[in-house]
What does this fold into?
Amino acid sequence: MRIAIVGPGALGCLFAVLLFPKEQSGNDSLQILDHSPERAHLLNTWGILYETDGNQRRHMVPVSANPLEIGPVDVVLLCVKSSALTACVQTCTVLLSPRTLVVFLQNGIGHMDIQEQMNLPAPPAFAVSSEGATLLAPGHVRHAGRGMTQLGFLHKPSDQQQHLLATLAHTLQLSGLDSSLSPDIRSQLWAKLFINVGINPLTALYNRTNGQILTSCAARGRLKNLVREAEAVARACNIVITTDPLQATLAVCKKTATNISSMLQDRRHKRPSEIDAINGAIVREGKRLGIATPFNEEVVRQIKKMEDEYSRD
Ligand code: PAF
It folds into this structure.
């Protein structure tokens, strides 16, 4: 199976190093597509540095900034942020054949709508991952905590797409990435969304790790209100909720206590965040359904203000 991973961010690098078989260096079973030729050159020269439990290993995964060098593959794993998706899928068209399986791996739920406007050759799949990955520098990923990757379709796939997804799940499993097929990926996307709604904006605003935000009464109170609003919106959308979203979010804060959330990483690197796809999505859905979401509105406003400030620096 030929796989292209689009975007060498934290999860892109993590999946690439674990999926790329060491004995297949020089083989084209897996390639990374990067929009930046400079970074592609850097990663091809130095490889990807994978760090876990204090140990480091370098992996020479092939990286290209030219999709024509990769050509059509069996699976495209889209690991870019949701704000970059539309532009990225246009660049990726040469990776697609009528039978290519596209898998979306983004935080939030914004990409569920975006993919509908993309005119993909076949129904895409969605992945939800709780692997803890931090990008310490370009091509340097720390695997901070083991998680689980769930994969599934929103719409009925063809037998061929179903088979490709099952093969991908199996390949992930063989690479040491716990993974399974989910019959209700929409609910899994929302279950992850609750966690990101509570943790991401507050870690970024308070400049604290996932565990540290629980030590402040004010942040803890805000987290509760953010997640409860998201839960009300989800219930109005008929999303199946099997685990209490607030308890699940608090448990992730504790389990990933030293993690620097992706939104805090964005703040520290002065990059645009995924606020629109996370809390922004709750505000939009709330408006559509007539549900008030003042706490989410407020964090969206604050994060955007912070982004405006650092984009002017
Ligand atoms: O976006 C993130 O950082 C992660 O999804 C999570 C689960 C909040 C852990 O840091």
